[in-house]
Amino acid sequence: MSTTARPLTHCSLAPVGAGAAAAGGLAVTGVALAVATAARTTPSVLIAPMEALGWSRADLSMVAAVNLLCFGLAGPFGAALGARAGLRRTLVAALLAAAAATAAGAFATAGWQLALAWGLVLGAAAGVLSVPLAAMVALRVAPGRQALCLGAAAAVTGAAQLIAVPGVTWVAVTWSPAVAAVAAAAVTLAALPLARLAPAGRSPVPGALAGLRRAVGTRVFWVLSGLMAICGAATQGLVGTHLVPAVHDHGIPEVAGAGLLAVMGVLTVVGALAAGWMADRWDPAQLLFVLFAGRALMLVMLPFTLAGRGLGLVALLVVFGLDWAATVPAIAAIARREAGDAAAPVLLGWVLVAHHAGAGLGAVGGGLAQAFMGSYVMAFMVAGLLSMAAAVLSLGLWHRPVVAAQLPVRA
User: Fold this and answer.
1) Domains defined along the chain, listed by start
2) pTM to 2 decimals?
């Protein structure tokens, strides 16, 4: 009696090939996220240099606020678009739009032109390439380690946002803000060949509006949205937008201040990956409590360390970098617990809309505080109190039962 053995290569190499393709898709998505986030940061970085050209800080803060709001609103639609049209097409279209908008802002002569290019178009294009899209890819690559994958995505975006600051600032100071914007656009275009390597398949992710209709009827959606609004106001909105101008107000050169943000960006990778690993193993709500309470303490201390301009400021920003994006994987783990695997990317996308709306308010509030009070002290204090309120609010999510509410797959 004879039998036909299956080739060894068929048994062993096919899973490896599939895993490599999936990991490659996640890597390409990560590169696109990093490039788009770096481009989106351009308006915030150029606040101080553009003030010297006659633009007001209040106007530039408003552009940054529109940018952040559009960035957040585009997130859930980006996840749905990537699922329906395919990852490759989505990456190429969004990168082209981000590059065009970044370059167009360099030639703006009026506030509405800057708001249209750097606020609306750049914010929306970068928002399509954000954490919800990464969640959709992570669902296919590692459904059992989604929080860790999203920790990596949050690390990439947070690090890109902060590490891009010194380069853009140096170009703006050495040459001009217009040259810095065109250079950022060129770097964005350079990522297009990689985007062509992304897989073209689709995923079973619900429509953005269908996900919103289901989510607004749940208590956990509003709690997570409140937490993320406070998170965005304190990090991207206040610190991300105004730290460089704040250190400049205390006599620290702009390039040195941007370097502090770069150090935070490197540590963001460590903090987000560690938070993703922990969120896959322990109650993510308890992790949120620790992160928000620690952030509250750091924000209250920040004005005093700024005044000292010593090692205390560096140490504080090092710890702040570890905390910067660590809330995202914890929030993602709770979203997955509440909505199930397939619906989690869109639910996370709508929760992050609140994050970026809060970031927009934080950017505007920081600019107004500096304009009317001559310093950022009150803005940092308010952000610290709000972060402590978020720590208390997260207590309501502890030890919730695991009930996956299935959302409709089609809008």
Assistant:
1) 21-397 (1.20.1250.20)
2) 0.67
